[in-house]
Each structure stands twice: as C-alpha cells, then as structure tokens.
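Protein in question kept underneath.
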Amino acid sequence: MRIFLRARSASSMGKSLKERKYFLVDNGSYGPEAVLNLRTIAHSLAKITDCEVRPMGLMHSHKVEPSALDGIPGESMEAFLQSDEAGSMDQLRVLPFFLGPSLAVTDWLPRNLEKWRSEKKGRSFAVLDFLFAPEDDRLARILADLCLKRFPSAETPPPHLILVDHGTPLPEVNRVREEVGQQLEALMRKRIGGFSTCCMERRPGKEYDFNDPLLENLLRSLREDGVRRVLLAQFFLSPGRHAGENGDLARICKGFEQTAPGFEICRLPTMGNHPLMLEILADRILKDC
C-alpha cells in the first residue's frame, strides 16, 4: 500500500493546482520518526496548495518496517525510480526538503532523474529550489520563534544561543548555516547573552575547518568561560538519529551535562513542522506554476 496525500479543500491561494503532483523528498532515514514527520508535512502542504504531495526519502526509507509506520510502507526515490510505476510516468516534479545545496540535491537527485528520463522518449523532470534563499529570513524566523516559545520572557542571566548543524564537506552548504545564523543572532540579540554556530560532526582535514567548532568543543569552551545555560537551536528539519529524542545531539548534550553539574542545555525542536516552513514549501510550488 502506498500513501498518497491529496488536498480535500480549495486552496487559499486562489489558484487550483489539483492537476499538479509533487514528490516531497528528504534525505531518507532508517528510522520511523523522520518518515512519519515527512508524511505529516506532506499532508499539511497538500491541504494548503490543493495539489498531490507524495513524501519520499531519497534513499533508505523504503527499508523501514511498515509496522513502525502505521502499517504503510515507506518510500524512497531510490526504489521508486526502478519501479514499474515510475516506468509508466512521463513527468516527475520534485520538491527538495533540504535546507541547502547538499550533494543529494545537486548531484544524486538530478543524476538519477536524468537516467530515468533518458530511458524513454518524451519524459521530463523538474527539481524545485531547496529551502534557503539569501533574501529570505524565514528560516531564521522559525528558529527565533522556537527560541521564544521555550523562553517567552527575558531570562537572567540570558542564555547563550547555539545554532548547530550536522556538518558538511561543502563550503556552500556551510554558508547556509552561517547566513541563517547571522539573521538569527540579529533577531535574538536582545534576549541572549551570546551567539555561536557549530557542527555536530565533521570530516578530518584542514580543508573542512570551515565547519568548526564542534559542538562538544564549543560547550566545553562556554563552560570554561562561565556560561551556565545554553539554548541549542537545531538546524535540522526532522527528528531522527541525529536530532531525535535519543539521537546524536541528545547524547552529546546529556553526556556533557552529566560531567558538568550546573550547566544546562535546552535543546529546541526541529524546524520542519513550523507553519513558516509550510509557507516556504508552498511558495516553491506556486513559483513552479
């Protein structure tokens, strides 16, 4: 059984998109959290755009046990492109659920779509823009709103705000974190005692130093400087093995708090379910019309 998420009401945008079909695609996951989260987002996006939105991971998601996914098997573009269904289609439109220009979006996806296109005359595909745009501060506003929901009034002393991403081999992906970080710092300046960006992990080698500092090293440095409360904004779209309840970031934070009595780390939710995120995704679809 496949999941198809389709709008049931007229779009508030004033233009019917009922004939449009999009694949909302993230990186894919072996865990159910991220798969279920993408389904929720796809369902909400279908409602506000009045078009069909089908959630898929690029890879791996079809391998998740269906019993952990409400009995509905997960799907991945990796498996879909080799299916009879894909073989019967002439057009694919893909909406990347990615913050920036990762290799998954700029290399894997177009390369595999081009292979699918070349196998039959008359086929076409389109890959829409990823989520970050330099002139758009909505990603930073999402993060700021998550901060203010956790601390609605000014704290004394004010917390140190950290924006953490996964880490990347690509400077252009890192620049997304840094630009959103600058926007977030400006939005939160009156509520925080300091601001930093960092990564969860990185590759060895000086050529990847642009990721620094590592979260663990930054937390250690802040504690040595007398900081006692940290607000950790996660530059992640969905919970999972990195940003989930028991993911890598939770493990890093818990381990640090256990060895640093009196040091508090407040980890914020992931970004993907925020109303402004749906607005960004809907804008991508509207721009495609």
